[in-house]
Fold this protein.
Amino acid sequence: MADERKKPQSGRHRTGSSIGAAVRRASLKRRVRPSARARARKEAINKRPMPKPPARRPVKRTSAKASVSPELAAQISRVQDKFERLEAQAQLEDIFSAVGEIDNKLTKLPFDLEALRDRGYVHSGQLEDKLEALDDKWDEVRPHVEKALAEQVERLDRELDQTERQVNRLGNANAALVKTVDSAVDSLGSRITAARRALDGLYDGIQSELYKIEYSLGQVGKMLDLMAGSQEIRLQEAEGPLLAVKAEWHQDGEEGPKGYLFLTDQRLLFEQREEVVTKKRFGLFKAESEMVQKLHIVVQVHEIDQVVHKEEGGFLGMGKDDILELVFAATAALSRARFHLDGQDSEDWAAMINRVQSGEIDGDRSDEYLEELEAAQITSASFPAQCPSCYAAIPQQPRGVTSYTCEFCGAAVQPLSGEA
């Protein structure tokens, strides 16, 4: 189903007041550096390490009497095997591991985020806020998990003792006793499952959110690698990358160049990166090819007038193509573009474009990148109203532009200095 989003005013960029408001909101947050919280978390863990799971208890396996029929002996063996597996599960080692993994992620992910921020990912504020919220929540939840875990392990240990005494009777068992013991073992298994679910419920939400953040950081790292691999893409003043996805530009109908679509807080870019066949053998088989890497599209985000995201094709809701269609203002180099996104939702791209155009994205800037944002805003507002050479009107310049070439006389126009 297609979703169409139109800007209230086409071909216009964000006003200085909207940018300033976002910057002010971001500056008021004054976020604590992620690494500072991670170090505090590590110190707290060292002072109060998570208890280790109890040592495995040896299980005595009683052999069935020689007089027992082969069928009954096989049943006894299956019950004993089942009890041994439950004995291992009752130690709840995976729960202890999951708790330790949460501790590790809350100390590792903040450093990973800072490393990406140092590489140029300036909009880390939202992820920083999420990590901070999860860190605070884990401070509340972790003591409850420890207490509940200790209680469950103690209770299950008692129940293991009771069930083990019944399992040890299988050496002199008849069919009725085997059935009774089998039922007792199954009941123990149900109680172990219930205990594990109860413990999972205490931290499962935190664990899931940390997995999502870890995935997001991986995507950011790939995006930065892709931008670094381009010879043509150079970030402008105060420009911050946001998204990157493998895409096909449907330049002619349903086919076109394949490469990567990039979105920053200032521009939308498409760079072709693919192997192109230059010569075929017998008109069918590849004989020669070359790697083509070329920047085809560079559009200011404020020049995007209309965004449509939709899914096409597929069968029974599966295998659908994510399509992003854009209509540009008259000032852009092209009027429209259609992209097939590979691996990301076009709806997410439409939402991010909207956040950029509204100025909301500026609120996600890290503290150390706020000053350059304000400086870029001042620069874009400092261009003269007319070209000093031919007196042609100069349109309002988007953020990040430090020089303007007059479209009438070709003169290079610089922003006015504060002393002028």
